[in-house]
Amino acid sequence: MNSTLKSNLFITIILFVFMIGSIVLSFIPGINKLHVLLVLVLSEVLFLIVPSIIYLIVTKSPVKKTLKLNWPGWLTILLAFLFGLFIQPAMMFLSALTGLFFPNDVSELINTLMSTPTLLLVAAVALTPAICEEIPLRGILLSGYDQIDIKKAMLINGLFFAMIHFDFQQSLYTFVLGAIFAYIVRITNSIIPTMVAHFTINASQIFLQKLIHYAMQLTPELNIEAIAQEYSLIEELYALAGIFVFAVIVTPVAIIILYGLKGLNKDVHRNNKLIQTDSLTQTNNLVENENIIQADILETTDNNSKIKIFNWPVWLSIVVYFAFTTFLLLLSHVN
Fold first, then answer.
1. Is residue 275's pLDDT more than 60?
2. Are 161 and 177 in contact (CB under 8 A)?
3. Could you tell me if residue 232 is left (phi over 0), alpha (psi between -120 and 50 degrees) or otherwise beta?
């Protein structure tokens, strides 16, 4: 079994564990009495971290190498933090776009938790996913694509990151984020920057909703009107247009920061390419004839390009994702 198929199969198992585990968890006596944030943290740890640990033990994969647990330097960390801030408007636009068709359950959940202490909310909704989701997705899954072209790796990573949320409303922006995060890990050879960016994006959303909540408390009459009002499609489109304009202005800064990350880590990026070439040639012998070396590289690269990234675990995951997410959507309408 090649590394790509093995990584895809692992995430497919994760999807099944998350799906079945969530159903089982809902039937445990007294689970409804637990705080929703505790249930969220338990779900992330049980269904993402535990399977990841089991995978690393069973496959005997080197933890640091597989998860890319390399310290990238403080400047890279700062750029990852700034990227998380400046990419937020683009993610808000994509979220609002899908919000025209599907309910934003995450935003509604956070709104119901506004009385929760901010640190607890940030720990559960920002810190926990930043660790628990990055390890299997940008760690184990992406490690199986070390020999694969970055564009293909970004595509699959974004796809699985979207599916693991089991939410149509989140699908578009999580796909884009998953692809970008895969690129960041590849150019920095570290999962830590994406953990920082992931945390920043989630945390900034919490603080934004906290700010709106406090502003509405200062004007209770507007608060009541906002709750009671149902916005028309035209009003939603106007709001979407406003977010789009804001995103167009701010997102170029995020792109510049991304280029800065690549430039800052250009030596790492170059070393990754050399390692990738070495793994593709699958030889440690010194060959004097340069033409033979080039022929071997071309042959192994050609063989590598024939590796199917859309193998059976990916197609199975797509079917399961659409079936289960549709079921959840219908169930929410019934309730």
1. no
2. yes
3. beta
Q: Return the minimum-mean-pLDDT range out of 118-127, 175-184, 226-235.
A: 226-235
Is pLDDT of 99 > 80?
yes
Instruction: Pinpoint the alpha helices (H) of the chain.
Output: 3-26, 36-44, 50-59, 63-67, 74-86, 88-99, 105-112, 118-122, 128-132, 134, 142-143, 150-163, 171-188, 192-218, 220-228, 233-264, 266-281, 290-305, 312-334
| CA separation for the pair 137, 129 (Å, rounded) | 11
pLDDT at 266 over 90: no
Question: So what's the pLDDT on residue 293?
Answer: 38
- As given in the structure block, the two tokens for residue 334 are 């019934």
**What pLDDT sits at residue 274?**
53
Q: Flag the least confident range among 61-65, 111-115, 148-152.
A: 111-115
Hey, is 39 helix, strand or coil?
helix
Q: How many other C-beta atoms are found inside a 10 Å radius of the C-beta of residue 250?
A: 16
Could you please report the per-residue DSSP string of 173-214?
A: HHHHHHHHHHHHHHHHT-SHHHHHHHHHHHHHHHHHHHHHHH
- Cα 287 to the chain's mean position, in Å? 42
CA-CA distances (angstroms) from residue 236 to 105, 131, 171, 242, 295? 17, 34, 19, 10, 58
CA–CA gap between residue 335 and residue 331 (Å, rounded): 6
Residue-wise pLDDT tens digits, 31-42: 888 888 999 999
Question: What are the structure tokens assigned to 67, written together?
Answer: 């998860």
Q: Tell me the C-alpha distance between 233 and 241, whole Å.
A: 12
Please, is 177 exposed, middle or buried when counting C-beta atoms within 10 Å of its C-beta (0-12, 13-18, 19+)?
buried
**pTM (2 d.p.):** 0.87
Would you state the pLDDT for residue 297?
40
Residue 82: CB atoms within 10 A of its CB come to 19
Residues 6+ apart with CB under 8 A from 123: none
pLDDT computed for residue 299 by the predictor: 45
